[in-house]
User: What shape does this take?
Amino acid sequence: MSDIELLSVIERYLNDEMSADERTRFEMLRHDNPAVDARVKEHQDFTDRLKQYGERVEFEGLLNAIHNEIDVQALKDEFVHHPSMIVRIWRNHHSKISLAASIAIFAVLSTLFFTGYLKTQANQSEVIALSSKLARVENSANKLKQQTDKLIKIVGGAGKIDPSKYTPSGTGFAISSDGYIVTAMHVTNDADSLTVQNANGDAYHVKQVYADPNTDIAVLKIVDPSFKTLGALPYGFKKRADVGENVFTIGYPLDDMVYDRGYLSSTAGSNGDTVRYRVAIKASNGNSGSPLLDENGNVIGIINSKQGQAADAPAYAIKSKYLYKALIAMAAESSTKKISLNSKNVLSNMSSDQQVARMQKYIFNVKVSNR
Amino acid sequence: MNKHISISAPTDNEAILGILNNSESMLKRIYIAYFPMVLQLVVTNNGNEDEAKDVYQEGIIVLYNKVKAGDFELSSKLKTYIYSVCRRLWLKRLNQMSRYGGDIHDIQEYLPVEEDLVSHEEKDIQFDKMEGALSQLGEPCKTIIEDFYIKDRSMQEICEKFGYTNADNAKTQKYKCLQRLKKLFFQQK
Assistant: This one.
C-alpha cells in the first residue's frame, strides 16, 4: 500500500466513512501493526492542529471586526487629556527622566575622566571635549558684573532672551526646516536652559529632545513661539565619505562664525573608534557640534573632539551615518514622525564664500545657562 | 462622553457562560467592556493604541482558552484576570523592544499569571509554525487544504471550485499537499 493510499484509508476511518466490516478489519490491522497505529494518531493530531489554526484565524477576524467598531481615539483622549501636562509627562517618562539623570551623572564623570585622568598619563594621547569650558569660567565672572548692571538697566519684556544669562558652549546646525538642530551632546548636557543664535542675529529658545551618550549626538528643537520656519536647507546629508576628500566646516569657536577647511584623513577615529572620522582641520573649543561638509555641500559628519590642545592637532567628527541612526531611535523613543534628512543640496556649484553665505542662517551658536 | 460604551459590562457569570457557548454578542460585550482598561495600561506605559490592540487581543485569546479548558476559577474577577494577562504580555513586549524602563505604572491590582502564559506561548508557537508552513505551501495546495481540513468543504465542492474533472486526481492532489504541509511544518524550528 502506498503512502497516499494509506492516508486515504486512515482518513476514511477517522471520518467514519467505512462499512462495519471494513472498520473491524482496519482496527485489527491497527492493533497488529504499531506503524499503522502511529500513522493514524499522527494524522489525527495534525488535522486537529490545522483545525485549531483555522479556529484561531477565525477568532482573530472576529476580534478585529469588533475592534474596528471602537472609537479608539475618543477613548484615548478621555484618559490622556485629563491629568495635567506635567503629571502626564512624569507618568509617561519618569523612567526616561531617571535615565536622563543618570546619563547626566555619567557625562560629568566621563568629562572628568577624559580631561583630568588622561592628562596625568603623559604619553597617552589625550582626547578632549571641545566645549568652551574656558569661556564658561570667564563668563561666570562676567555674570556677576552683568547681574549688577542689570539692577540698573530696565529689564526687557518677558520671554525675550537675555543674552547675559547665556554662555556660548558650541555649535549646532539645522537638520530640518521646522526647527530641529543637531549638536554634540557634551555641548548641552549640563545646561539648565539652552538658546541658539545664528549669524543673522536670530536667537531662539531650544530644548533638547534627544541625546545619545554613546555617539555624543544631541538633537535640539526650537521651542520659541516667535519661530516659524527656517526655509529649505541649502545643504544635503551624505552617509559616505572617502579619505582624502576636501572638507570644510562652519562653527562658533568664538563669538563669531568661523569658516575652516581641511581634508578627511581617516575613516577611523582614535584607537580604532569607528564612530568618528579623523579630519585634518583647524578646530577649537566651540567647534563641537559644527557640521563637517564635503566640497559639494553635503554634511558628512559632526565635529566633536580633537587630539590634544595643539592648534594643528587633528579633529574628530561623528559620522553622519550615526545621525541617521539617532533620528530613527529618536522617532521610536518619542513615537513621533521620523525626521528625514535632505539628500539634495544647492551648494555644489558655488564658491566657498557663496556657500558660507547661503549656510550661515542655518548654523547656530549654542548657548547654555546654568542657574 | 461615554456614548461609545453604551453596552454595559457583562457580569462574570454571564461572560463565562457566553464564552462556553461561543456567543459572538457576548464576545463583543466583553471586548468593549475591558478594552479601555488595557488601552490605558499600554498607552500610559510607553505604548501606542495599535500595540494595545495586539496585547488585548492576545489577552482575550488566553482568556478564551482558559475558560474553554474549564480552568477559570470564578474566585478571581474577570477584569483582574484580563488586566494581569495583558500586563504580563505588555511587560514582555517592552522587554523585547528594550523599551522597558524598570517600572510600570499600574492602574489596577493584578495576579500572577505566568503559568497560563507558558501554555499560551506553546500554542502561539504552534500557530506561527502552521501559519508559516501554510504560507510556504503555495496555491492551489493552500486553498485545497484550508477548504477541506479547516472549512470542512466536501471534495466535490473543491473539485468544482478548481475545475478538477476527476475526483480521484483531486484527492491524490490533496494528500500530496497535506504531506508537503507536514514536511514544511516539522521543518520549522
